[in-house]
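Q: Hi! First time doing this. I have a protein sequence and I read that you can turn it into a structure. Is that right? Here it is:
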Amino acid sequence: MKLSRLFTTGIAVSLAIGSSLFAAPSRPNILVILVDDMGFSDLGCYGGEIHTPNLDKLAADGVRFTQFHNTARCCPSRAALLTGLYPHQAGVGHMTEERVDAAGKTLSGYSGHLNDKCITIAEVLKAAGYFTAMTGKWHVGQNFGVTPWGRGFERTLTSAAGGFYYPEGRGAEIFYNGHSLGATNAPVPPHWYSTDLWTEYGLKFVDEARQTGKPFFLYVAYNAPHFPLQAPADEIARWRGKYKSGWDKLREERYQRQIALGIIDKSWPLSPRLQAVPAWDSLSPAQQDRYDNIMAIYAAVVEHMDKAVGELVDGLRQRGVLDDTLILFMSDNGGNAESGVRGRLEGEHPGDAHSTVYVGQCWATLNNTPFVRYKHYTDEGGIATPLIVHWPEGIPAARRGQFEPQPGHLIDIMPTCLDVAGAKYPADFNGKPITPAEGVSLRPAFEGKPLGRVHPIFWEHEGNRAVLDDHYKLVALSGQPWRLYDTVADRTEQHDLADAEPGRLKKLAAEWDDYAARANVLPLGGWQAPERGKDPAKFSKETHFELKMDQHLARGKAPPIAKRGFTISAKFDAQKADGVIVAQGGAAMGYTLFLDKGKLTFLVRVHDDTGSITSPEPLTGAHTAVARLQRGGDMTLLLDGKSVAQGKAPGLIPTMPTDGLDVGSDTAGCVGPYSSENQFGGTIASVVIDLE
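A: Yes, that's right. Below is the predicted 3D structure, encoded as structure tokens:
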């Protein structure tokens, strides 16, 4: 999409006077590209079927890292990339809300914005003589007055937090060099697509940099492919029907391509689908068509982003600066399972400016092939990202097209940029001491040399945690015990060594504890502390609940099931084969007692793991059921006084679900694998819930 005639003319003039007036800088230019919610395997050069020829070409001419990591979530990843610190050290351990302790004091790791104990790449490079610019999504505290133009960027066209593709999008507001343009005020045009807008202004800022004679540092933070997924209709149409082979077959195809490419070792098994994700062949044709539509929109968004990267690269080539520009491309977290199994496909024309589309858990399982889990989690599916490095004058010819298996993390981006720029990380800034950098420069790996990392790499997000030391990784879900994996032999995390190597587990756990104490991670769970200016969530103190058909309890009045066992006793008369008896929670966590093709089923969801038990025979008519979850995760199901099923849940539900409780339906995010049309077919005389 074009911007204004004035802007186009400006580019033409600057190109015309270009290289004849301005000598190439002695230090390389730097372009950092961050995309949003893209999985490890979505790009063609990492095994995906989506058309990404421009990024594939960068990879073929550069170096691909196969074990690079983000922080598992948007805001923390941006904080780590910009500062070279772990996100809690920079003040953004969760999102952009300020959390406080019982005395009302801000929790250091959860201030919701970049603090004054960190320094950004832009602030260091600006002082070192670079022209600094940014386009795209900021999302590290503009709501607190922390802005890109206030943290070292001389030229900016940005959004405070993303969340839109078109000017009609909810919350669409563009900031140009520190001033709000609303959605369409000059100099931006009345019609735009954000991916193109960030790209075209990125090149505009490159031209301004060249006029100064300085090398440039340009940070382009695309909001693609974050929800609400939107793209031009003709681009979506090209992908319709191409995903009807389903996630099971497509995961296997991606997995085989990754082995053939050399991205992964053939000895690593493809992680199995989590239980919540249905087999593709179990879906009806109508369900398959709906899911195909969702993924077609996602593919179109990624493909358009790749075209935009191609325009950036072509623009640099036309200006004669591509060879001496270091390009770093990566994603802020793994594929996004938010919205659960069904995903979201809403609007009269899904994918347009007025629609809302989430890719959902099923397709996120494909996005993160071959790994397990998703955004939010510190399993590899949540933290593994492509890293493509392109720098013709800085990468030896023999290394081009090669893979780099050494582990890396977003905390390494700052040291890398400073290394190639010949800049120094300061001990203080603006008269205040700065937290020492955590990462290492990746530059030696460009030449195939050891990074010399001496400290482990650490993670914590929403209680999910991990530590990687050499090739051993310790990882745990919130409230769950540590698991241990050898990432050289088992990168897909399928063989837990915790019982076999207790000494190594103890050592790594102690290192994680030290990190948590020094890096402002504690108190663990600080992201759930009260938000400044808002009353803390108050939950019921009751332990006995007597409920009736069609009753709904909001979160604050629902049973406080966090970290507690409970018993459900239900009396009902079933007239149909399907329907929810009682459900509390949603797509993230909770429990549900329901009929599935006549069989009584008790399901417990903890994050993206589920445990369920089912009666062996279908039933109709009047019955009394008792479902119980006990400490340790033991599940039992009784029907009319007789035990009919036993099993194991992933554990107790660690935090209070966001969604409330329903009797006779599940009206919010669905806990179970049923559709949103889940009304119980019959009558429910009573539901009694007792907490341990």
